[in-house]
Amino acid sequence: MTDMADSSRQRFLDACACRPVDRPPIWMMRQAGRALPEYRELKKKHSFIEMVQTPDLATEVTLQPIRRFAFDAAVMFSDILVIPEAMGQGYTFREEGGIQMDFSISSQRDVERLHTEGVVDRLEYVSQAIGQIRRELDGQTALLGFSGSPWTLANYMMEGGSASEFLQARRLFRTEPKLFEQLMEKLTVAVSDYLKMQAEAGVDAIQIFDSLGGMLSSEEYEGISGSWIRRVIESLQGAVPVILFSRGTAGSLQELVQTNAQILGLDWSISLAEARSRMPATMGVQGNLDPSILTTTPEIAARETTRILEEMRGQNGFIFNLGHGVTPDAKIENIESVVATVKGFK
Ligand code: CP3
Question: pTM of whole model > 0.85?
Answer without folding.
Answer: yes
